[in-house]
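Re: your question about LLM class flavin-dependent oxidoreductase

S., sorry for the slow reply, the queue was backed up all week. Below is exactly what I fed in.
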Amino acid sequence: MKLSILDQSPISSNQTAQEALYNSVNLAQAGESFRYTRYWIAEHHDLSGLACPAPEVMLGLIGANTKTIRIGSGATLLPHYKPYKVAEVFNTLATLFPNRIDLGIGRAPGGSAEATNALSDNFLQKVFNMPNAVKELLSYIYDESTSSHHFGKVKASPLPRNPAVPWLLGTSLKSALLAAENGMAYAFGQFMSDKDGVDIIKQYRDSFQPKKKGQKSEVILTVSAICADTTEEAVEIAQSMLVWSFQRKNGDSNRGIPTIEEAKAYNLNEKEKDSLEQKKKHVIIGNPTEVKQKLLELHKTYQADEIMIVTITHSQVDKIRSYELIAKEFGL
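Result:
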């Protein structure tokens, strides 16, 4: 089973954004050494506690500091941008780092309404136009400039020998069917969805329309997981992430992900305690044996080709240790 990494570049308490971004480079290097298949970095805008609004910038740095692991955006939020510019950026990355670049595409705003308005005009209209934007982007990525389509005969230079591999990321049937219609690989964000992902993925598979000979549907399932040497330690480490989710909801996340001690001291009311137990159900928490079992169960349930793991901890050491333990348990 393939395993990969999704990174949101979270900022811990007493840490700068610069330190968080360099931790992302460090995580990609660690993932490469543990033999993970790919590393993707997310795009967020003006969200306190998350350091990366520009995956394309980080991918240049990460690509230069790794050698073999596939790297990509998880996701580039297409409604904010012109497809042509996105194609130019990822063609450049694919030229610099051959056979290593993934172009993950999403339709979410990635931030507040104010940030969305600052980024782009008529965002909702551009979301509505997403199917056309995806087709236009793919025409540039696959250099269909000689065809007579209405996007014109412009090339998104430089043209790499091996273009970036496009993925559509989502949590809805709409995104799954859009991926299927365009012969794209699909990544389902199970860690942030309450929807029936099993049915969504099945409909993606059933509706898949290959655009090239031999092309098959491909699915990544993205999950949240924290692994430690013991179950007790994993539960303790996870408390930081869980409490941080309440701090963000309450507008109190500017101080970053709390330490384990800060998380333990955080005063939760009864409603929040109940909510915390519900949130735990969306996170795989445990020792290596427990985490492996749960990942294998999800892999089988969702019929995914690959599992992508997002791990949020206060300590970079704990985060890398979590990925290391999982890799060893699976014998990567």
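Residues 2-232+283-330 form a domain with the TIM Barrel fold (CATH 3.20.20.30). The chain has a mean pLDDT of 94.

Happy to talk it through on Thursday.
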